[in-house]
Specification:
5-stranded mixed sheet, 6 helices
């Protein structure tokens, strides 16, 4: 993970938008070091580049939507961003012929499999990280999220609370850089059966089905295959959080603690972090190999 990476060659993925219900073809293309992740709406001729950054998030209701200064947008980017983060992809051009990233199976699993199938190309340019210097907290009613310093890791401690008895209260703590995250990346988006018609009447979940989401009715999972792992509900929230954190533009070193959060809460927290330069430090790695952890203090060179 210490040098910047891109895909080895083009990856083509077809699917349906979860909320739009429209067919979409997406291409992940190699990009040069230090170019970052860029989305390109190829169904629009001009001003069609959108950068996934904290301040380009224009809607975080049920998914993460980013827009450029011309109002061109792309939605439901979080599962793809999580896959890119997990694979260490720092630079890529994402061409999309519609307004939404395909939902596939509702997780990051297929994105990761498709990218792995073509391979990953490593450069000789070091990665950049953002290290949190002080604790930042954001609260909205009974929802809570904070980020605080961590020496070498990205830790995510996430809790969900649902009145539904099957989902209930779930909590998981993940060490992102030192753990096997296969259960996180395999975990699918979910909803309650009684919410489906309401969501569709509001223009959401028009492409939703049991093929791309877990649907819970009372004490039953309607998907015939059941759950993929014991904590799939909270693990999917962690997956979303990882994808949304990548909108910082860097690998993050810090500890997240969140209760009942989602896309908006994560974005609001990152905006708070960026409000004051004393809240964080930017570094790049200057050693080729490090053992056990992503970084240590000797391996850093300040870039801000």
């Amino acid at each position: 993970m210490l040098n910047q990476k891109t895909v080895n060659k083009e990856v083509v993925i077809d699917g349906t938008g979860l909320h739009s219900g429209q067919n979409v073809t997406m291409r992940v293309l190699p990009a040069l070091p230090n170019s970052g992740i860029q989305f390109k709406r190829i169904d629009i001729l001009n001003n069609n580049i959108i950068i996934p950054s904290v301040f380009n998030v224009t809607n975080a209701n049920l998914c993460t939507t980013i827009s450029n200064e011309y109002g061109v947008k792309i939605s439901t980017i979080e599962h793809l961003m999580a896959a890119l983060f997990g694979l260490g992809i720092d630079n890529a051009i994402i061409e999309v012929d519609n307004c939404e990233i395909p939902i596939l199976d509702g997780s990051s699993k297929i994105f990761i499999e498709k990218i792995k199938s073509v391979g990953i190309k490593e450069s000789n340019i070091p990665i950049k990280i953002i290290s949190i210097n002080k604790k930042i907290t954001h609260i909205e009613g009974d929802k809570f999220i904070s980020i605080e310093p961590s020496k070498t890791n990205l830790l995510i401690d996430f809790e969900i609370k649902y009145k539904n008895n099957l989902i209930g209260t779930q909590r998981n703590l993940v060490d992102v850089y030192n753990s096997n995250l296969s259960e996180i990346y395999d975990s699918r988006t979910f909803c309650l059966y009684e919410d489906v018609k309401k969501l569709q009447s509001m223009g959401f979940a028009l492409g939703g089905s049991l093929d791309n989401a877990i649907v819970v009715k009372d004490d039953e999972v309607l998907n015939k295959s059941g759950l993929r792992n014991e904590k799939e509900f909270v693990n999917h929230k962690i997956l979303d959080c990882i994808g949304d954190l990548f909108l910082s533009g860097y690998k993050v070193v810090g500890k997240i603690v969140c209760s009942q959060g989602g896309h908006k809460l994560t974005n609001d927290l990152l905006r708070k972090v960026y409000e004051d330069k004393r809240n964080f430090s930017l570094y790049e790695i200057k050693e080729k190999t490090l053992s056990n952890t992503l970084i240590n203090k000797r391996s850093l060179r300040s870039i801000a």
